[in-house]
Every structure is written in C-alpha cells, then in structure tokens.
Specification:
29% of the residues lie in helices and 30% in strands. It has 139 residues and is an alpha/beta fold. The protein has a six-stranded mixed sheet, with helices on both faces. The chain starts with 8 loop residues before the first strand and ends with a helix. Pfam families: Cofilin_ADF (PF00241). This is ADF-H domain-containing protein.
Amino acid sequence: LKVMASGVTVDASLKDDFNAIKLGHKYAYMVFKIEGESQIKTERVAENSTYEEFIGTLPPNECRYVVYDYKYTLDDGAKREKLLFIHWAPDSARIRDKMLYASSKDAIKKELKGIVEIQANDMSEVDEAAIKEKVKASG
C-alpha cells in the first residue's frame, strides 16, 4: 500500500468548469472523480437538476467531490445562492478510496474559492433539510 501524501493533481480544465458554475451559473452541479489515483477530473456536469435528482446520482459505494449551485429561499422570501463543495465519502466505500479522497481534498479545494464545505458519509448528511441548515449557518 502506497502511503499517500496524495500526489493527486487537479486537471487544468477543472478551474474553467468551476468558473462556469460560479460566475456564469451555467451548471446545476458538477461531479469530480479521482482517476487512476493520480488526477482529479470532471466526471460529469448537469445543466438542470433539482436537488432531489442530484442526490439520486451519488454513487452508493464510491467517493466523489461535488460542486452544487444551491438556490434557496429565506424565511422572508429572499432568494439566495451558495456554492456547495460536497466531499461524498459513503461509509460503504473502500477504506483506501476514502483515504485517497480525504488526503486529496485540499488539492481541489484550493482551486475552488467561496464555497460552503460539506462532509457527507451517508444520505442523511446530504438531505436537503440538513443542507439548508448548514448553508444558513454559513451566513
């Protein structure tokens, strides 16, 4: 087993994808995957999706990073948006994968500015009610 100070790099196109969602709100969300234990790449993007539809796409036994353009309404009716960075590491994922994603998270996070980070190990932690609480708490 290779010790991971995580030599994982971030694919150059990832920053462009992130800017497309952050500045242009071009996508509802983007999913990133570590390929070949060496590079974080964009796995897929979705232009339109409800939060429920998005949750249904999370792999039950594999880790992923997700950037989600979360739109919500405050109690007073004001509309808000926050970019969520979800580190999806389900309890059922392989330990080695969970370690690789955990040790590589900083590589992708430094590319992504102005986001609310959410660590999720099961569906209850990405439930929309839980997300709304975390988003509101973040200001």
